[in-house]
Write a structure and sequence with these properties.
Elements: H1 3-24, H2 34-56, H3 61-82, H4 86-109
Helix pairs in contact: 1-2, 1-4, 2-3, 3-4
Length: about 110
């Protein structure tokens, strides 16, 4: 896989997680699980960091990419548990795609 595609995937996931968070915040009176909000923030931040590490060609890029894949998978699962919201569905799909991109980068680096 091309590193540029993985960077693009991480950047897109960062943006979608932040949009999903903004979408959910007004709904906090509906008892949105605070753990989901934390997971969205964690995912957005690790995706941003992963893209940054890859852009710089950091020697630690593969380590960050591995963590990114794990957090993205966890975020996707958390979003899927709520199921019926279109933004959450989009977020889950985007997170799964990003996790796959990171795993492909790791396989190529090995």
């Amino acid at each position: 896989m091309n590193a540029q595609r993985c960077i693009k995937s991480c950047t897109e996931c960062h943006q979608v997680c932040l949009r999903t968070l903004a979408h959910l915040l007004p709904q906090t009176t509906k008892r949105i699980d605070p753990a989901l909000l934390d997971t969205l923030l964690d995912c957005a931040e690790i995706c941003h960091a992963s893209a940054s590490f890859m852009l710089r060609g950091s020697q630690y890029g593969s380590h960050v990419c591995a963590v990114c894949a794990t957090i993205c998978e966890n975020c996707a699962a958390a979003c899927e548990r709520l199921g019926d919201d279109l933004q959450l569905q989009l977020c889950a799909e985007t997170c799964r795609s990003c996790a796959a991109s990171c795993r492909e980068m790791l396989a190529e680096a090995a």
